[in-house]
Amino acid sequence: MAKVTIQEVARAAGVSKGTVSRVLNAREGVNTETRSSVLDVMTQLGYVPDPGARNLARRGKHVIGLSLDGDDRRGNTYYGILRDALESRFSSEGYSTRIFSGYNPAMLEAESDGVILLGVHLDDSRPSQLEARGVPFVMVGHSLEHAERAPWVDVDNILGLFEAVRHLTKLGHKRIAHLTGASTGQASRQRIEGYRKGILEAKLPINNLLVWDGEFTEVGGYRAVRRALAAKLEFSAIAAASDEMAYGAIMALEDEGLRIPWDVSVTGFDDLPSAANFKPALSTVRQDITAVGIRAAEMLLESMAGKKVSSALVPVKLIVRASSGAHTT
Amino acid sequence: MAKVTIQEVARAAGVSKGTVSRVLNAREGVNTETRSSVLDVMTQLGYVPDPGARNLARRGKHVIGLSLDGDDRRGNTYYGILRDALESRFSSEGYSTRIFSGYNPAMLEAESDGVILLGVHLDDSRPSQLEARGVPFVMVGHSLEHAERAPWVDVDNILGLFEAVRHLTKLGHKRIAHLTGASTGQASRQRIEGYRKGILEAKLPINNLLVWDGEFTEVGGYRAVRRALAAKLEFSAIAAASDEMAYGAIMALEDEGLRIPWDVSVTGFDDLPSAANFKPALSTVRQDITAVGIRAAEMLLESMAGKKVSSALVPVKLIVRASSGAHTT
DNA sequence: AATGTTTCCGTAACCGGTTACAGGAATTCA
DNA sequence: TGAATTCCTGTAACCGGTTACGGAAACATT
Asked: pLDDT category, B82, cuts 50, 70, 90?
């Protein structure tokens, strides 16, 4: 309750503010004994440094802003994980992070030394505005439009879907459908591309009737599969562009009495925490959100240090679980 | 780019730091002329006060923390709106808000003067921890368990569903179903209660076969309705406990060739921004998220000022649009 | 023994604001 | 016209930290 300041710690430990500060920042040139005694006093008093004063004294705001777009498709979990990753990386560098949801470039500039841009869309004005103001930033996710002009980090969407499809073809599946997020931007397009590459690699024919729009949502996946079933389309596997669509697809299949993976194999994309607990456990492409966050943080740090940084593609990994299995004639 | 400080503004305007500060904080006792000239210089130089220094100088952190629970059902939009409301109310009072997603009471206490608790659930330890540490807080949403011990603000769930059902009974509907969020806590239970009250008020029989679990999601609503249809349950209206379940319900009905509102009337709860644009436009119970936010902010402010505050129920309003209509035999 | 190095730590200035206090100018009052 | 008010604004201390600088010990070197 009573705020304990560095001064009080200093007095209690019988040293000066300066020394406490040095201990606090793990700077060298402090006697090991002194250090540990100060450390003791700090924990004993429950000392927590005031971030405001700290940022003031180091001359720089030492805050990085996370700017999210108002309406974004991805769920809370996605951003939660991403934010944790960013936060841990930045805080170990002495920065704190802050979310700016209302899009306000002036505020962003005033209150942060650099920004991470989330959910950039086609006619997004943030990149150019930030660029004009000279605020360092990196985008997570990318679209062709902005890809050349500013650094981004993204997951390897093409490879991801490609591997999912290859997994299915190796299991003997010949008629593999793709549940796509349609118009929702670059990621969907890249995943479709990965799907095509996978089909072609197995020397199978591309059938546009097997590419269904799932709108990136659970219901979307559910309905798309129902329509396909109603239209009597033939398929033995579905490679979805997101876990949620895969969930919807599985529900729809099961509601029609089909068994996963015996009658139909289904794969997702994301590897949400819920994917492993889903019944059946979902085979999916893990996109390492944490890795994306860490990479983005590092790029931003470099960029703030004045270096030129180039965009990065984070690798992706196929996780095989219970929802996919060998094709049974 | 170059940071402009209060000192520079002062010099440029030919006054002292003190005067600029007074202008900045809209304190009285500054000549009108001086004030406006300072204001001019400020905008001209693009001055933005450093929040860190500010909070340091006013002796208090002047930060209020928003603590969200890790996994929460509500979508991004809900929290976005709520946060905007909180932010605007607090910032006009000189506070800035910060989100703390990783649940960390020590951090909360160290970095904020008060906290808004979002998504409190039954065995949530946050209220008691905060209480023990003496940190002022108010919860948005409430459960019986914590209701007595700490102030909360919530929407009038019971009244909301009650009015939706009354709207439907007045349209002549006799067999009205309810799509509930089931186990998701207090809000669902209260909405069920409102539903029952509405049915009873019209002297209709309560039929538990007409209460369906929609899991608070779109697919949940979709599947529940499909099951009901498959079971040949009779109903001419559905009062859902959330807009999203209503969306799912409508999709399911339309997929079966039913027309809204001619064959079945559907109402939601929330009035999400998308509700008006949905086809058909959704009749729903508007919960004024902004009002909830503002009320919560005011309560927290009072509580921080040392006053005892009592919990509040925010009223709710029925919005009739195209998805509900007269019962046609 | 005198001098040169290191190592450790205290001192004081500073970051960018806020605010109590005091004093000069303008205004009102006797 | 002199005194008492009122208005406005400058001065300086302070918030809680960081850090350049310098000095006192302790140790090594000749």
From this structure: confident
Mean confidence (pLDDT) of chain A:
87
The CA–C1' separation of A33 and D22, in angstroms, is 23
**In angstroms, what CA-CA distances link B328 with A7, A16, B171, B260, B319?**
78, 84, 9, 12, 21
Q: Find the nucleotide nearest B3 (Cα to C1′).
A: C16
Q: Which two tokens stand for residue A219?
A: 């219901």
> Which pLDDT score, from 0 to 100, does residue A310 have?
92
Q: What tokens appear for B10 in the block?
A: 């002062």
Q: List the beta bridge partners of residue A286.
A: A270, A317
In DSSP notation, A149-171 reads TS-EEEE-HHHHHHHHHHHHHHT
Give the per-residue pLDDT at A193.
Answer: 95
Q: If you count them, how many residues does chain A have?
A: 329
How confident is the model over B188-201, as pLDDT tens digits?
889 999 999 999 99
**Strand D footprint nucleotides (protein C-beta < 7 Å):** 7-20
Q: Are B90 and B297 in contact (CB under 8 A)?
A: yes
Q: Does B234 touch chain A (CB under 8 A)?
A: no
The DSSP 8-state label assigned to residue A144 in this structure reads H
Token digits of residue A293: 């966050």
pLDDT above 90 for A146? no
What is the pLDDT averaged over residues B69-73? 51
Task: Tell me whether strands A63-68 and A114-118 are parallel, antiparallel or unpaired.
Answer: parallel
A25 touches strand D (CB under 7 A): yes
pLDDT score for B1: 47
Q: What are phi and psi of B253, to 5 degrees?
A: -65, -45
Question: How far is residue A295's CA from residue A291's CA, in Å, rounded to a whole number?
Answer: 6
Q: Which residues of A206-239 are buried (b: 16+ CB within 10 A; e: fewer)?
A: eeeebbbbbbbbbbbbbbbbbebbeeeeebbbbb
HSE (side-chain half, CA atoms, 13 Å) at A18: 3
Q: A235 with A174: CB under 8 angstroms?
A: no
Question: What is the arithmetic mean of pLDDT over B123-128?
Answer: 82
Residue among B229, B254, B224, B255 nearest B240 (CA): B224
* Confidence band of A235 (pLDDT split at 50, 70, 90): very high
Please state, in angstroms and rounded to a whole number, the distance separating the CA atoms of residues A260 and A253: 8
| Mean pLDDT along residues B246-272 | 96
Nearest to A198 by CA among A164, A156, A242: A164
Nucleotide closest to B16 measured between CA and C1': D10
Alpha-carbon gap, residue B312 to B323, rounded angstroms: 31
Is the C-beta atom of A93 closer than 7 angstroms to strand D?
A: no
Q: What is the DSSP code (8-state) at residue A14? A: T
Cβ neighbours of residue A284 under 8 Å, at least 6 residues apart? A164, A243, A246, A267, A268, A269, A270, A271, A275, A318, A319, A321
The torsion angles phi and psi of B50, rounded to 5 degrees, stand at -80, 115
Per-residue pLDDT at A104: 64
What's the pLDDT band for B72 if we cut at 50, 70, 90? very low
Chain A touched by B72 (CB under 8 Å): yes
